[in-house]
Design goal:
heterodimer, A: about 170 residues, mainly alpha, two-stranded antiparallel sheet, 2 strands, B: about 170 residues
């Protein structure tokens, strides 16, 4: 037990890191978020797409958690809101592909492109592909953030012979 | 020329993987795995797959962050593992047998980018005018194969649901 306490790294607790890390992350996190939005929104024109953009968005939030600690993220993206965002992403996807049936196309058919085809190589082109990209990005962002969050607030400690799960509140 | 660059990267990737296996310190091992991932993304760029390269870099960064965060907070700093000789020799023999068996199949592989399948030719020729998406990968996964993407999203949703439910706030002792 004594060796465990000696090896514990105090900088990786959820109370935040040093001042230098905080300052740099304060500058960078917004740009990472913006880059994730760009990758998502232009997924049908340039390389990238919903999954890559969503992972970048999640990475910006995880950066804030790692550098500033748990208190900074609670007003920004609390756990309830992340769960709601994840469900909303999935629902947007499902409702879009269902609407195609009522709009006269087949299931998962690109009805927006077939009805109102607009100029190519623009942001609002390619029918419902940008919409589905955004839905997937929301889902992946909230999902990966949730996985990181629930993993990082849980610690497994050795109590006697048994492993015990405790929460860091 | 491209193939030689890719082979060079593959050799470096194998070296980095061996370094990750052999190093005692957990942090240097994770950094070596990160080097493997970044070189793999450069290989994807040379194979003209920028989408896969972006996903590779991003997922590598995120999983490494999670790995570092989770493992270091568990107070595990070093790996203690004993390696004996016999499994290594067995692996080498198995690798040699596999190489001999696969030599003919590898020799018959087509060049990179030629001899496309019929479906791929159809997507490349008609994909843009049928979907309007300039990125053909997006056109395939979100228009032609949107149902498949829905299934993948469902898989991710279910996995995250399981993690959140198991590690929920009011956990039983």
């Amino acid at each position: 037990m004594k060796r465990e306490e000696k090896n514990r790294a105090p900088t990786t607790e959820l109370n935040g890191m040093s001042e230098i890390v905080k300052t740099v992350c304060n500058w960078i996190a917004g740009f990472i978020f913006l880059f994730g939005c760009y990758i998502t929104a232009y997924g049908h024109l340039t390389p990238g797409g919903g999954f890559a953009g969503g992972v970048i968005l999640a990475a910006s939030f995880i950066l804030i958690v790692l550098s500033f600690g748990k208190d900074k993220i609670s007003p920004l993206l609390p756990r309830k809101r992340a769960e709601m965002i994840e469900a909303a992403g999935g629902l947007i996807f499902i409702f879009t592909v269902w609407t195609a049936i009522y709009a006269g196309a087949s299931f998962c058919g690109n009805f927006i492109f077939k009805k109102w085809s607009c100029a190519n190589f623009k942001l609002l082109s390619a029918g419902f592909i940008p919409l589905l990209n955004i839905a997937i990005a929301l889902k992946v962002m909230a999902g990966l953030f949730l996985v990181f969050f629930v993993l990082s607030i849980t610690r497994v400690i050795l109590e006697g012979e048994k492993l015990k799960m405790v929460k860091e509140e | 020329m491209t193939e030689y660059i890719i082979f060079t990267f593959l050799v470096f990737m194998i070296l980095a993987a061996v370094a990750a296996l052999e190093s005692k310190d957990l942090l240097s091992s994770i950094i070596s795995i990160g080097a493997v991932g970044f070189m793999l993304s450069v290989v994807f760029l040379y194979l003209k797959a920028p989408d896969i390269a972006i996903v590779q870099v991003v997922v590598e960064i995120l999983t490494l962050i999670i790995l570092i965060r989770v493992t270091i907070s568990r107070d595990i700093r070093t790996i203690e593992d004993t390696r004996n000789f016999m499994p290594f020799a067995k692996n080498v023999i198995l690798l040699f047998v596999l190489a001999v068996l696969a030599a003919r199949a590898i020799g018959l592989l087509p060049e990179v980018g030629v001899n496309l399948s019929k479906v791929a030719q159809y997507y490349l020729l008609r994909g843009f005018e049928e979907t309007g998406a300039a990125n053909i990968v997006s056109a395939v996964i979100l228009d032609y194969r949107a149902y498949d993407t829905l299934g993948e999203a469902t898989i991710l949703f279910t996995a995250i649901l399981g993690a959140v439910v198991i590690l929920r706030r009011k956990a039983k002792e």
